């Protein structure tokens, strides 16, 4: 599900309300009231920045849908569908530290089956980006997010309107952020760090107690043929069966419940809670 940045929306609502109050009071009471509210506005802005936690390890990774070099839409949901950890690394063609980090990521990719995606935030045509990748011998898959307009705020790549890169995220197969790296440190081998983190993640997964996976399916969701939609990566009978097969490899003990097309494509946490509660009766 696409993360719409609750933090940013709440901040905007607060600021709009305060500004409206300032304008109304200024018309009635003049500059004194205006100055008081300006001070209040600054205080609220400061407090809100303190209250809202930044993206951190243990948080669920914000959703994203971006185009790759071939104009195919790719979502984080579809990337994680293979039940493998993924590394997302934001970069730009003008970023020298990024150019130093990427070879380490390519080396890691060759030695493991982890998924690594580079996210380019240049405001360049895909042809220009492709040319840069070719000249730099970069073979990792690349997603395009011009000026980081789609994912920049959610992944906190943009700070004060400026890009803070390279920025890298290690995300578990369950969509949880396990490691965040900001900037590039020549004294640290990011490839080795990720290798250790991934090894720890695999050990952590091995310790997970036996689980019963309950799959709620709304049949083919209206699709009678395979669908390449990024938001429905497993629409259609063939893709739905493929997805369930992979999930059953991960969860040998499972129960498949067909809702008879009564469920929406995505269940909210509240709806899922009701459905799970209903199974107790």
Give the full name of the CATH homologous superfamily of the largest domain.
Glutaredoxin
What percent of the residues sit in helical stretches (DSSP H or I)?
A: 40-55%
Strand order of the largest sheet: 2-1-5-4-3-8-9
- How many strands, which pairing sense, and closed or not: the largest β-sheet? 7 strands, mixed
Tally of helical segments: 8
Q: Give the low-pLDDT segments.
A: 1-10, 45-53, 220-225
Structural class, judged by helices and strands? Answer: alpha/beta
Number of strands: 11
Total of domains: 3
Rounded radius of gyration (Å): 23 Å
Beginning-to-end CA distance, first to last residue: 29 Å
Instruction: Examine the secondary-structure arrangement and name the CATH architecture of the largest domain.
Output: 3-Layer(aba) Sandwich
The CATH topology annotation of the largest domain reads as Glutaredoxin
Sheet-strand content, in percent, reads: 15-25%
Q: Which descriptor suits the 3D outline?
A: globular
The CATH class designation of the largest domain is: Alpha Beta
Order of helices and strands: HHEEHEHEHEEEEEHEHEH
This entry's quaternary arrangement is single chain
Average of the residue pLDDT scores: 76
